Request: fold
Amino acid sequence: MVLLVTSAADANGAGYGKLLAFGSDGQLLGPFSEDARISDPRGLGVYSALLFLNSGSNRILVLDGKGCVVRESGAIPGLNPGGGNFGPDGRYYVGLRAARTIMAFAPTLDGSGEPVLPPAVVPFPRGFAFGQDGTLFLASGIGPGEEGNNTILAFDPERRINSSWKVQDPEFSPLDLAIAPNGNVIVSSEHPFGVPDAVTTIREYDRAGGRLVRALAPDRGTGFRRPRGLRLGPDGKL
Reply:
């Protein structure tokens, strides 16, 4: 098994600006692809053995298992993509950082993307995922300029806000969001965001109402700091 990790460029994450590959033992294998169109890589999605990658060059790239680009959207002015996930309708959904909303694309990348939520629906999107019943959960966190708020919104399949689903947790600042095998919402959190002594946790919320179920706080000696992407592997492990 190979683990792929996006390493953002200096401006966004003080990283390498590459898509990195790691072995199952955690050993760095090097860049998964050297394609020049991969710039400040961000979100990832997997569809039919293909890897969808959001590039900071305002484009979506599709890579095969050898790291070769087999499809691309071309440059989309103003895209500024963040995370990506496939929805229950088979489309590839992309979080837009500047527009502060979500846009959906056909997996073929034909045609233009379709906005699925209003612009500026949250102050700063910090990850999203679809629940087992089609509910769209969108985390709202703090941006690099300290703008934003800390909450999670739930939208029904018609994209109406579910006001009965509400997170009341003063000790979290979400950085990414995923759905656990039991259907609950899990987020990576750094609170307060951006401060040197921030508390890093993984937090789980009840899928029915948003109640905090539990929080995992690793020992600081593990070096688990400033978490971003959050995914479940094929073995069910986080």
Remarks:
- The radius of gyration is 17 Å.
- The first strand starts at residue 3 and ends at 7.
- The longest helix spans residues 10-13.
